[in-house]
Amino acid sequence: MLLSLDKNDTRPLHEQVAGAIRRAIAEGECGPGDRLPSARDLSEALDVNVNTVLRGLRGLRDEGLLDFRRGRGVTVAEGADARSVLHLRTRELIAEAARLGYSRNDVVDMIRGLP
Fold first, then answer.
1. pTM of the model
2. Is 16 exposed, middle or buried (0-12, 13-18, 19+ CB in 10 A)?
3. Across the 115 residues of the chain, what is the mean pLDDT of every consecutive 10-residue run?
4. Which residues, in sequence order, are CB contacts of 97 under 8 Å at separation 6+?
5. How many whole angstroms from its chain centre is CA 43?
């Protein structure tokens, strides 16, 4: 799994780490049941503090995308690929709407107005 962070991204680093892993899941680089590299290995590869990586991983666990298992490490959760794709697309939609001057509530209202 090749991950990278965008130095121009203004989001907090832990969100960028989570986004990179979410993208890897959405694009099929790793799927349900696959084991992720250790937090230490990820921190070295991304050149960020290990606590930053752990915070990003915990966020993905809380979203239901990752499972933490003692002795087995961090694995991609069952069904995570579909959730990850939807989450990624939703974030892209919200970001594009913000660039166009719309708020999240505007996007929600637009979605509710769809047939």
1. 0.73
2. buried
3. 83 93 88 94 95 96 91 90 80 91 94 92
4. 103, 104, 106, 107
5. 15
User: What CATH number matches the domain at 13-112, 1.10.10.10, 1.20.1270.10, 3.40.50.300, 3.30.450.20?
Assistant: 1.10.10.10
Supply angle C-alpha 73, 38, 53, rounded to 5: 110
The C-alpha atoms of residue 102 and residue 54 are separated, in whole angstroms, by 32
Query: And the tokens for 17?
Result: 């780490």
With tokens 């049941």, the residue in question is 33
Q: What are the structure tokens assigned to 97, written together?
A: 């709407």
Beta bridge partners of 74: 68
